[in-house]
């Protein structure tokens, strides 16, 4: 039997990049994956081609409020009967000098990268504590895995809002782990390094920045979205039942330099 057979895994930002790779990773391990993003057509097509289980729940996270999070979790449980894993992956990045950083962009980045993961985690935990746990087997737990960043540990350049959001998300991960471990909820995070995604395209297309980045990565290459999937699978598995509040960097050795 596959590792996540019979499990329901929610992945936000599943339309491309890390989110799509993580969604496919769980799908290939037998999970029913619920994708949450604006446009999930490409991801749904891949799942269909591979005969994997996928549910599309389009959502505009820029306008997401608490009632939207609660409605989303309720809809998932209504359609599948359960919720086992929440992957808070959706995120955006906007580059401006800090002295000129627009307030509206600041608020947009913080909302999607920090507020939305908290609201979804809150709604999922509330459902688990009030309903899900009573129906679950004693050994079953709710797993929440956030997508942090190496900018949860460093400052970066031209990305003050992104750094603030990812530093905050690492803090939320630890805080929720402290409160919810006793409820059989594990909250952890994966902190990817320099991964080839749409968010990092400007860096890869700048020859000088690209070379400077590669020179510091011990692996000597940019990571691929598939490089980080294993960390999510482990943190969502029973093997990680005693892992709480961890922020795991998957960065080719960047932070070890």
Task: Describe this protein's structure.
It is a single chain. With about 260 residues, this protein is of the alpha/beta class. The protein has a single domain, classed as 3-Layer(aba) Sandwich (Rossmann fold). The chain has helices at about 15-30, 40-50, 65-80, 105-135, 160-180, 200-205, 205-215, 225-235, and strands at about 10, 30-35, 55-60, 85-90, 140-145, 185-190, 245-250. A seven-stranded parallel sheet has the order 3-2-1-4-5-6-7, with helices on both faces.
Number of structural units classed as domains? 1
Ends: how far apart? Answer: 40 Å
Total helical elements: 8
The average pLDDT is 97
Brief overview:
This protein is of the alpha/beta class and 257 residues long. Helices cover 44% and strands 15% of the residues.
Keywords:
257 residues, alpha/beta, Rossmann fold, seven-stranded parallel β-sheet, 15% strand
Q: Topology of this structure?
A:
Elements lengths: L7 E5 L4 H12 L3 E6 L3 H9 L4 E5 L7 H15 L4 E4 L14 H33 L6 E6 L12 H21 L4 E8 L8 H4 L2 H10 L9 H10 L11 E4 L7
Parallel strand pairs: 1-2, 1-4, 2-3, 4-5, 5-6, 6-7
Helix pairs in contact: 1-8, 3-4, 4-5
